[in-house]
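WARN no homologs supplied; continuing
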Amino acid sequence: MTESRPPSRRPSPLLLVAVVAGAAVAAGAFWLLDPIVAAAVAIMTVTAVGVVVAASDWESHATFEEREHARARRRKEKWDRNAGARARDRARWEAYQARQARKAGTPGSDPAGR
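OK structure emitted
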């Protein structure tokens, strides 16, 4: 099984440099260029920085096996939690089956002899 790295709360220094550089490029574009061209440069820069931020934790997800193990654990906990309800349902079903057998006239099933 492949180990996934734990998610960290602090962004990497390289990611912070990319965000600051992107903001500087966008701001500098408005200072040096025509506003229309600067807006295009700013949009492209913000998009690129957004992709870098989104891709920064690309490989930190859980593996298929880890997700399935967690899912199986949750299902087992739910199964154990509902054991009493299943037992009550089983008892009611068996009582219903006994009543149906008595109604059908199965010999020896009705103590009153009806």
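The first helix runs from residue 13 to 32.
OK
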